[in-house]
TrEMBL record:
<protein>
    <submittedName>
        <fullName>Uncharacterized protein</fullName>
    </submittedName>
</protein>
Length: 61
C-alpha cells in the first residue's frame, strides 16, 4: 500500500524508538510475521496498525 511522506516519517520514528528500547531485528521480524500471518484476508496489511500496538507486543514503553 502507498503511504504519505508523513506516514513514512512516523513509521521510521516508531521503528527507531523500538530499537532504542532494545528490540532486536530478530524480535521485530518474528512479531511482524506473526502479526501478518493472523490478519484476515480483508485486511490491507497496513503496518501503521502494527506499529501503534508494538509497545504492547514487545512489552516496552
Amino acid at each position: 500500500m502507498r503511504i504519505t511522506e508523513e506516514q513514512y516519517q512516523s513509521i521510521s520514528e516508531q521503528i527507531e524508538q523500538l530499537q532504542s528500547l532494545g528490540v532486536t531485528s530478530e524480535e521485530w521480524e518474528a512479531e511482524i510475521m506473526e502479526h501478518f500471518k493472523k490478519l484476515p484476508k480483508s485486511n490491507n496489511g497496513n503496518i501503521i496498525v502494527f506499529l501503534h500496538a508494538s509497545p504492547r507486543r514487545f512489552d516496552v514503553g
